[in-house]
Write a structure and sequence with these properties.
The radius of gyration is 22 Å and the shape is extended. The relative contact order is 0.10. By secondary structure, it is mainly α.
Length: 98
């Protein structure tokens, strides 16, 4: 019988067991979101918390947090940052001095 090409001896594909020895969150994937979880997600998003910190506090993967926020209509973009195109060029700054 021929060996499958994707199962190489040193490859992590096809290996069983935990992916990380000590994950930062418990495996809560595919578990339903409670109203308290969604409320905390809204509160953390309002406080400009990074998604990595949210994943540890909610004990869920980052992808699950992003998808739930998208479904609920919660914006994860920081509110207090100015847009990138706001920098003035040298010509604008020179005109202001006059």
């Amino acid at each position: 019988m021929a060996r499958t090409a994707w199962k190489r001896p040193g490859s992590p594909i096809g290996k069983k067991g935990p992916r990380k020895a000590n994950p930062a969150y418990k495996r809560r994937s595919r578990q339903p979101w409670s109203t308290a979880d969604v409320r905390m997600l809204r509160q953390l998003a309002k406080g400009n918390t990074p998604t990595g910190v949210m994943s540890i506090k909610l004990q869920r993967p980052i992808a699950a947090i992003r998808s739930k926020a998208h479904r609920e209509g919660i914006s994860l973009k920081p509110i207090n940052r100015s847009p990138y195109n706001r920098r003035t060029t040298k010509t604008r700054a020179a005109k202001r001095r006059r």
